[in-house]
What we know:
Largest sheet: none
Number of domains: 2
Structural class: mainly alpha
Helix content: 55-70%
Distance between the termini: 46 Å
Shape: globular
Number of strands: 0
Mean pLDDT: 80
Strand content: under 5%
Radius of gyration: 20 Å
Amino acid sequence: MYPVIVFYGPSLEGYIPIPGDPRIRFFGQAFGSLGFFFGLNKLLQKNSMVISNLLLSILCLSVIFLMGFRTMSVLIVFFAYLLIIRVKGLNWNFFWYGLLCFIVVILILQMPVFNKIIQNMVLRNRTETLSNSEYARVLQFEYFTKHHFKSFLEFIFGSGYPHPKQFCAYSQYMYELSNNSNINWVDLGLLSLSWVIGIPAVLIMIAYSIKAFLLKVPPAYYYLGMWFIYLVAVSFTTAEFFREGNFVVQAFALYLVEKVYSDRMQKTI
């Protein structure tokens, strides 16, 4: 791939690194969480490639931790348990799989780079709370719900996307707002997205994610629906659902869900 930029941040104009906070971002990073659920699902199905699937799950889980999001790190474990229950049911196997996941997480956290990220998460958790009136997400919610929109219709259908490369008055205004007031529209996830592209569009995105989860597919493909629900769950405090490149990942996953579901229906006819 060299010299193509995969991990962005330092490449952005005006990027200021946070000392001691090694967090990565990359295009299409939803492949990380999708790969984790895929590997775990194959492990639960006792696929012949046990070592490969275990390694895939561990590496993808490591990527999630390296992103440094508290919500994503906690919920990936929660939804992993839900996937285990869905595939295996509630029995003693659930306990042993849970113990294995716990051991893997503990081993990962012993590595210095992951340990540092956890420490930073704990430190941020002391100040980055909704009870703090100066917390960025609190300021953003106050601004967008009370001051931003010019009319009710604009609130419903969104005020448009402030593209950083388009030097129009709106983009310049949002850029200065982010720099001067710490108000950036992306930090409240799907709620933020509704302020930009409208409530109906966001509801459609949530709807197709729920449908992907509810469609009846063989157990080997349960990971697809679980991944979509995970994306929705973590995207109330992060931009993971619509981060750069992630819609392409969703397109592949939706195609696979539809294909597997169609094949299953044809076999039942």
